[in-house]
From TrEMBL:
Protein name, as recorded: Ribosomal L7Ae/L30e/S12e/Gadd45 family protein
Molecular function via GO: RNA binding
Taxonomic source organism: Paenibacillus mellifer
Top-level taxon in the UniProt lineage: Bacteria
Keywords recorded for this protein, A-Z: Ribonucleoprotein, Ribosomal protein
Keyword Repressor: no
Length: 109
């Protein structure tokens, strides 16, 4: 499977309004329990990765770290994106399954 597949799902989720992006908005979605899956770019700073790893751990939200900011941004039709959250269980599952089949992600919990 190529890496475009999970990422095309992100674009779909974005167009469907089931994806939020940006530090503060994603943190808010995590705290409210709205986030079903958080994706952090593999080239995000160690600080950013730790912040979302801790936050997702606290709220028991699946987290993936992988791809790079250009790839994530491109997949949702925006400039570079470091963090995304899926706020729909269906999309979250679909993307999780697709990503599990690729080797682009080094961290999943």
């Amino acid at each position: 499977m190529n890496k475009a597949q999970p990422l095309s799902g992100l674009g779909l989720a974005m167009r469907a309004g089931k994806l939020v992006t940006g530090d503060e908005i994603v943190l808010k979605a995590i705290r409210s329990g709205e986030a079903k899956l958080v994706i952090v770019a593999g080239d995000a700073s160690a600080n950013t990765q730790k912040k979302f790893r801790d936050k997702c751990g606290t709220y028991k939200i699946p987290l993936m770290i992988g791809f790079d900011r250009e790839t994530l941004g491109g997949s949702v039709g925006k400039p570079e994106r470091v963090v995304l959250a899926l706020i729909d269980q269906g999309f979250a599952e679909m993307i999780r399954k697709a990503i599990l089949k690729t080797s682009e992600v080094e961290y999943i919990e």
